[in-house]
């Protein structure tokens, strides 16, 4: 990763780790589709959430593809909301050569 000083800045937004439920994924020739529910287990309300999916090459650990989505609705503690993340892949991509990381963050109001 390279930081661009013109497009990078510090923020006072507090991000909270969240969990998911009912996760599944499918792949076709152009993308992986990741679905499930974001669960607000933060102990309080959140203003929204981000779900990021990163595909890593199993052999090298290098990131090979990424996608994300934003959930903008406020969620009460214990509430859940559906998510779908599309991850574009190259033609001929071998799904068995990759593993994925799911990152879910909530924004404290």
How would you characterize this protein structure?
It is a single chain. A hairpin with a 5-residue loop joins β4 (48-57) and β5. This protein has strands at residues 15-17, 19-27, 31-39, 48-57, 63-71, 80-88, 98-107. The strands form 2 sheets. The protein has a 4-stranded antiparallel beta sheet, with no helix packed on it. The protein has a 3-stranded antiparallel beta sheet with strand order 2-3-6, with no helix packed on it. The chain has a single domain, classed as Immunoglobulin-like (Sandwich). The two termini are 28 Å apart. The radius of gyration is 15 Å and the shape is globular. It is 0% helix and 54% strand. The chain contains no helices and 7 strands. With 109 residues, the chain is mostly beta strands.
Strand order of the largest sheet: 1-7-4-5
Q: What is the class in the CATH system?
A: Mainly Beta
Number of distinct beta strands: 7
The major pleated sheet works out as:
4 strands, antiparallel
Portion in helices: under 10%
| Residue share in β-strands | over 45%
What's the gyration radius in Å?
Answer: 15 Å
Kindly report the name of the CATH homologous superfamily.
Immunoglobulins
The figure for the number of domains is 1
Set out the fold topology.
Elements: E1 15-17, E2 19-27, E3 31-39, E4 48-57, E5 63-71, E6 80-88, E7 98-107
Antiparallel strand pairs: 1-7, 2-3, 3-6, 4-5, 4-7
